[in-house]
Amino acid sequence: MASRVLDWIDRRFPLTRFIRHELTEYPTPRNLSYWWNFGFLAGFVLVLQIVTGVFLAMFYKPDVNLAFDSVQHIMRDVNYGWLLRYIHSTGASAFFVVIYVHMTRTLYYASYHKPRELMWWTGQVLLLLIMATAFMGYLLPWGQMSYWGAQVITNLFGVTPFIGDQVVLWLRGDFSVGDATLTRFFALHYLFPFLILAMVGIHLIALHTVKSSNPSGISLADKDNIPFHPYFTLKDLFGLGVYLIVFCAFVFFMPGVFIETANNIPANPLVTPAHIEPEWYFRPFYAILRAIPDVLGGVLAMALSVMIFAVLPFADRSNIPGGARHRPVYRAMFFIFIADVLVLGYVGSQAPTGFMMLLGQVATFIYFATFFLLPFISKWEERWLRARGLPPELIALFPPRPPRVKFPRPEIAP
Amino acid sequence: MKRWLVFALCQFACSAWGDTEPALNEVRVGVDLPTLERGAETVITVCAGCHSLKYVRFRDLVRLGIAQDKVDAWRGGKPMGAAITGQLPADAALASFGKIPPDLSLMARAREGEADYIYSYLLGFYITPEGTLGNHYYPPTKMPDILAVAGVTDPSQRAQLEQKARAVTSFLVWAADPHARERRALGYYVIGYLLIFTTLLYFLKRRTWAKLDRPASA
Amino acid sequence: MAAMPDSDAIDDADRRDFLGKATMAVGAAGVAAACWPFINSMNPSVDTLEKATAEVDLSGIAPGQSQTVSWGGKPVFVFHRTPAQIAAMKISGGGKDLQADVDRVRQPQWLVVIGVCTHMGCIPLRAERGWLCPCHGSVYDDSGRILHGPAPRNLAVPPYRFVSDDKIIVGKA
Q1: Residue B216 domain boundaries
Q2: Which chain B residues are Cβ-neighbours of C26 within 8 angstroms?
């Protein structure tokens, strides 16, 4: 019966064909490690955030007089409202954990190289959309940190030359963050995840065009690809199970970890909390913002710190594939960069005075130096590795050039 | 779990900034009904003289397990859905104290140190050398020494006051997160289920992938 | 290629099948259980459920007076009847929907009925005797019974109970 219904549909719509070609029979490198699970996890977290978000929106009221109370109503009176809220607030942080690991995997294996540049850039657009969504979502509970975080960050747009003040006024819809800001942030926070969904679709179309990279860095022969189902469906589900255990440990036993203390106090435009700090996932960029004493310089540095990832496919001029796998200098740069980001994250949570300020500036310098030095170091490293002798699996990629044939000069007839 | 984390970070942060805040006294938060009931009694009959708990309603107290007639005595003529309001009008508060006493519904979450902070603060009143009232944990406080702890040195009296402060703290912790017990109970079931499911998936995955290494079979 | 004993191959398939089926069953159960909080969150919340009952203080209602209270969004007439009115209702059986007065009250001096006309849902107005629905002219007596007009049935009696002599809870029998 089911197969007859399926046949009827298949004659009118490429359902089975599509599922077979893009999902069940889709050729995937057999040597993918667990680091390749995180794309699927990101998709799962996105869906969970959308589902919990829609149900929360059934009770949340985007009005400055009602917002905080409506969140308490959800937490106390709505059946399982506390669960919806905690999944959503923990999920936001989980989303960034998953995305950062996913990006780190790409950086380690330098998978952003040709032909996967578009995957990297669509991924970057996704990161920006997710950051915007998280920033707007954070205002919605209308706590002290919500309000002042939004106040500080919207203020930054004032550095726009000539029209800075108008830009801030336009963004907020009011002279300071207020009801107009809250309602529009709610509308956009509801909208953006669907833009993210569309972008994920584009990201996956790009993926299915160039296929996954793999830990060896080299494209595998056809015989070394295996169908996505059941191998990777099961592997992804297992990875999901492990992820959910950690995720639920936070949701059910430590949910308050991701809710700033100050956000349990309703927003007060007349009182600033002692230490304004963004959520952990924004702190490295916040540290870079504060490292530059000049406001415009700081904003430009912060924007650049996110956008600069786009240049990687060009900045990394090495032809040696596999990133840190085969390139020891790149590996060192990778680990230094990761450590630097962690240091910046810590600096972002501390008051910007004295030693912390200096540390932040040094870490910011290292951050950008990595990108500026990469074009030179990558080329030098390639020359060094090829002179040293490549490992056997890479030699095949660089066939020896045939010797230059010297042709005899033609005799000139007298 | 989070309290430990916040406490540890607080100590680290405080020492990093060279702050001279005194260390918090740790309190073992009570989740049993008698402690919560004692705490509710004190909060509603004493603290609510000045403070409100606008998100705690009388029906929530019944759902906690407190007897209906006790709750009826506390609420007087107010309906079950009414919140616990403070008796002190705003203008009188401003005149006497210069500030409106903050709402206590979320106080156990709204201060660094959470339960430990509330407990330490309540017991932290003392008489300054000049004879005025001070508090070790929040020096600018305008609140009177409601538990009358300042100057108490007798150990048994002190122990009684500590019990009272513990009951109040425990109730405020409940008030800030009334579903905590239900949440943790559900958490055990959910993680237990996930452990079983993930284990099953692990073996299924291993079994399926083992097919790859076996020579081509039918 | 080592030949595998037949029993081994069959065992493998059986074991894998059991594992596969067990995993799918456990997974399906988990997904179903995970749906419940979402579905249940749409059920009325605790504060809304409160509207299912309404406490009414009777001490402020003088004999001959009727007070209208809201119960779950609906109006409920709480009518304090005088002895004369009670006697009149005892004699009569009502109109087209015959029902004894004693079957409509818990205590004879208190009539508690839902103030929604059984014709098209308008709220009847208190008249000198009984109620008159302004929409299509249905007339109810002091027991809320339909006397004449298009309404088919008597005014409905909600579940209620006396918690004391001067307090009732509407919504709980």
Answers
A1: 187-218
A2: 193, 196-197, 200
